[in-house]
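Predict structure. Chain length: 388.
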Amino acid sequence: MIRAIFLEYLRQCLVPTLSPGDIAAPVRSLFRNDFGIRVLLGLVTGVDPQRQIVRFNEQEIPYDYLVLATGATHSYFGKEGWAPYAPGLKRVEDAIEIRRKILTAFEQAEATADADNRASLLTFLIVGGGPTGVELAGAIAELARFGMDKEFRMFDPADARVILVQSAPRLLPAFPETLAVIAQRSLEKLGVQVLLGSRVEDIDPGGVVVSGKKILASTVLWAAGVTASPAAKWLKADCDSAGRIKVGADLGVPGISNVFAIGDTAASSGWKGKPVPGLAPAAKQGGTFVARQIRARVEARPPRPAFKYRHLGSLATIGRKAAVADFGFVKLWGEPAWWLWGMVHVGFLVGTRNRIATLINWFWAYLTFSGGIRLITGGSESLSARKQ
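Prediction complete.
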């Protein structure tokens, strides 16, 4: 029904609407009554398929069947030096840190007397016009224009400049063009400056060079691409350009017995011969398929048919009462898509307490245009204004 569900929640934590505790649940508590499941926290450094062991925290853990679901991380397309200046959004820690950067930028703008410095501090640039970039741009613009009204004395938060840079000729390439146009208009209505067909050439502490022009921006966020975990290197398996393991029709790793890959770790053509997208429903469907495949092997039953991904639709939110939804034969936008987006998100939360807390926080934000969580936590960055 939606793309990466967890990332959707992270975006809501990024701007001050939800607390991380409202959207995340400890894995260990989810399996407290499943005594056949053991949860370990640590770093996997390799896999030896010949010996059937996983190297973990300087230990070796044997396996009969191995399912790799190690996800993906940010891709800077070979420009790894940009990472410190343009963080991406993959983990709860990322959301908290980016939220700190956004809120701190407003505080620094209040403290500085330098007009140029204030302008840089109030410029937020997002690289990448996919669903993540569109949602981040809309969320930040809405926060600046509605969520901080009358809170600052030296400037109007609504004057903040939000820029979305996209190298492609349109936003949301995976969506129908009609919905992409609607999304762009919704962003521009919020005051977001959309730069299409624009290439990021450099990122440094002072800002971004876009198509030969330097844009001074203290807060730059990366939403332009992802790359898979090093799972393919562990197995010395064939992979695609994004580092995803090329799996067979059964989601098994060719040439390696009893090893499967799912989600962002796998490059599968199980979508009517097309690549399976890196979406949450695809990972869930792959996990269910592999579990049944393993069970069939254990019980000496015939293997299941080839994995077939069922695309249930895509959703992207832009701002208050603004979203787009594509279900193939049905397309929604505006307020109906926005309400649907909210219901889907609440439905996928884990735990009754989280659902109730999220509903209350969202309802209050809807009535008052006020975000509920505005704490600046972590980080050693000074709150004093910085000279560019």
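Summary: Residues 47 and 54 are 5 Å apart (CA to CA).
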